[in-house]
Amino acid sequence: MDTFTVFDNGQFILPETKADFAGIAWSEHPAFAGVELKHLVTAKDTDGRFSYHLVRIAPGCGIGNHIHETQLETHEVIKGSGRCINTGSVIPYEAGTISFMQAGVPHEVIAGAMANILIVEDEKKMQEIITEYMRRGGHTCFTADDGMDAVLSLKNNPMDLMILDIMMPHLDGFSVCKMHGK
């Protein structure tokens, strides 16, 4: 199960409350097209102290420049890629990035292409070149050094595209395709 699915079905737990994410519906953002929210804890629930929600942004869409006057905001990127503009600085967003916006700070988020690409190449320099090129296009890249690593990666991460070398040690590209069944 990919990390986003785990979060989408997870829990938010505080001493006084618990929210099961799976039972909370996604809703369209009222101001930004292509943006969906899953409200886990609202400002109304906490007397304005904080809110917490999952956000899904469609490829090429974004949350335009805005300010939260009284609340700190955190972003934890768990899938996909893009960029955040926070007080004029561009922060690249990819899985594993955490960013903080202080109250009163203007910021915006723009989603990248958000394709997950597995690059399977045993020649390290070629793997680096392909990975860099794909990341510049806004894609999230995973790499594997041989066919066996590719099979393991495909079991743990859903991919939109695989760039696959044919002649590799341990397991060739044709065998990877047969094992993966796609």
The SSE string, one letter per element, is HEEEEEEEEEEEEHEHEH
- Spans of at least 5 consecutive residues whose pLDDT stays below 50 are none
Per CATH, the superfamily of the largest domain is Jelly Rolls
CATH structural class of the largest domain: Mainly Beta
The rounded Rg comes to 19 Å
Number of helices: 4
Number of domains: 2
Structural class: alpha+beta
Largest sheet: 4 strands, antiparallel
According to CATH, the fold-level topology of the largest domain is Jelly Rolls
Strand order of the largest sheet: 6-11-8-9
Kindly state the percentage of residues in helix. 10-25%
Q: How many strands in all? A: 14
Chain-averaged pLDDT: 85
Structure description:
This protein is α+β, with helices and mostly antiparallel strands and 182 residues long. It has two domains: 3-111, Sandwich (Jelly Rolls); 116-180, Rossmann fold (3-Layer(aba) Sandwich). It is built from four helices and 14 strands. The chain has helices at residues 3-8, 124-136, 147-156, 173-180, and strands at residues 11-14, 17-20, 27-28, 35-41, 52-57, 62-66, 73-76, 81-86, 89-94, 98-101, 107-111, 116-120, 140-144, 161-164. The strands form five sheets. Strands 6-11-8-9 form a four-stranded antiparallel sheet, with no helix packed on it. Strands 3-4-5 form a three-stranded antiparallel sheet, with no helix packed on it. Strand 1 (11-14) and strand 2 form a beta hairpin. Helix 3 packs parallel to helix 4. It is elongated, with a radius of gyration of 19 Å. It starts with a helix and ends with a helix. The model has no long low-confidence stretch (mean pLDDT 85).
